[in-house]
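Appendix B, example 12.
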Amino acid sequence: MPSMNSSDGDKVRYAFPYLTFSVLVPEKGRSCKQKTAVCRKTLNPNWNYTMHFDDVSLQDLIERSLEIAIWDHDRLGPSQYLGGCRLNLGRGSSFGRPVEWMDATGMERLIWEHMLEKVDLWVESSIMLRSYIDRPVYPIEPTPGE
């Protein structure tokens, strides 16, 4: 994570980042969300974390989305959103219904496709984070024939 600047232009000396995962979007509830431990006083966090979600089939993963968000923990107030990504097939629909959160493009979609192809294998990748989770960071590619 590169050096961060505060809104008034002062350098931030350190952060208290942590990650959240939500694999069963649009499902709500604790069973579909996980969170890492907070990395204290760092601008270069390193997580060695394995997500495990029970009773999730390959078909579920095709129809759902994995949201990963990085937050700066604040003990006295709300945590600050630093960035995130949404991995899915980018079809704009889930289980036959149009949904806003199936909006992955570029590397977000390619990583998800690679993960679905390599079931039970490690997939390592780097990805640019979205400043706002509701706005894709990668440009939307035209479909063939457009």
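The CA atoms of residues 22 and 131 lie 17 Å apart. Helices lie at 58-63, 106-117.
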